[in-house]
């Protein structure tokens, strides 16, 4: 970074935090990069302070997880109920067909 600032005239750096699980760096490496950039370029320090002042919504992820788990549970119970209904209808159809064939004296 120092070489890029001194020799190439780079005056800003961008740190992107996307592609979770695919292209990630550790927190320590990210903080080290931010410290180096803030030491070299004042604009990074200002933006870093502004981000730290933004309110964080830590409960949102927990709420979304709860909603996801409840939805998953409901879908599982609906699947079991649907399977039970299919089995019950199959049994009733077999019972009806058996009575029909007995009535016609085919069984």
TrEMBL record:
Record's subcellular location = Membrane
For this protein, the parts annotated as crossing the membrane are 75-95
Query: Taking the first listed entry, what is the main subcellular location of this protein, grouped into a coarse class?
Result: membrane
**What keywords were assigned to this record?**
Membrane, Signal, Transmembrane, Transmembrane helix
Q: Pfam families under this entry? A: EMP24_GP25L
Cellular component GO terms, alphabetical = membrane
**Record InterPro entries:** Emp24-like, GOLD_dom
The UniProt record lists the GOLD domain at 58-102
What is the protein's membrane topology class?
Single-pass type I membrane protein
UniProt record similarity statement? Belongs to the EMP24/GP25L family.
Name the record gives this protein: GOLD domain-containing protein
Please tell me the species this chain comes from.
Answer: Zea mays
